Amino acid sequence: MIRVLLADDQTLVRAGFRSILDGEDDIEVVAEAGDGAQAVERAREHRPDVVLMDVRMPALDGLEATRRIVADQRLAEVRVIILTTFELDDYVYGALRAGASGFLVKDTEPTELIHGVRVVARGDALLAPSVTRRLISEFAGRLRRPDPSPRLNALTEREREVMALVAAGLSNDEIAARLVLSPATAKTHVSRIMTKIGARDRAQLVVLAYESGLATPGWLS
């Protein structure tokens, strides 16, 4: 059973999401929160698998609430999906930097909401390659000067190459084709990279690749 926490300051939004999710045999909404501070409290109390977190909330916004959840070692298994009105607003990139595992727009189809919760619950990032490309194109150019991370020192040259391709928005199959590897090998490389650099999922791997200068916007055609 996938346990979900809903965090949104609009009661009707929470009610709509609860109705959709509770209708699934493998998903249960275990708690709700009306602001970011409550979201952090409820996360610590219920230890959900997934938090659906609105960005704009009173008392404490979704970005800071996400940071606090991700930073809490007791909540290491909790994954956050950011809910946003617009697919590519400033908050989305900030949310990924804060540790969110992906995002959904609020008017998403019910099937996409359900799929997103399941994807993140199993430990994957809800960040499709096509969305990665657009997101990075829009916001990565605004980053400060790259700051090489010592975490990358643990990577082999091949792993750095794979990480850069992930950051460019390539799927595991596309990485395999470009590097003449099997899809299974490409997937293994990605998993090993995340373990070595301490990334929670693919989304954090992408952010670190750009912030460290391993990848830059537009470098891969």
From TrEMBL:
Record key words, sorted: DNA-binding, Phosphoprotein, Transcription, Transcription regulation
Domain Response regulatory: 3-121
Record InterPro entries: CheY-like_superfamily, NreC/VraR/RcsB-like_REC, Sig_transdc_resp-reg_C-effctor, Sig_transdc_resp-reg_receiver, Tscrpt_reg_LuxR_C, WalR-like
Signal peptide (residue range): none
Protein name as it appears in the record: LuxR family two component transcriptional regulator
GO molecular function: DNA binding
Species of origin: Allonocardiopsis opalescens
Modified residues (4-aspartylphosphate): 54
Lineage: Bacteria, Bacillati, Actinomycetota, Actinomycetes, Streptosporangiales
Pfam families: GerE, Response_reg
GO biological process, one term: regulation of DNA-templated transcription
SUPFAM superfamilies xref list: C-terminal effector domain of the bipartite response regulators, CheY-like
Residue ranges occupied by any HTH luxR-type domain in the UniProt entry: 148-213
Domain of life: Bacteria
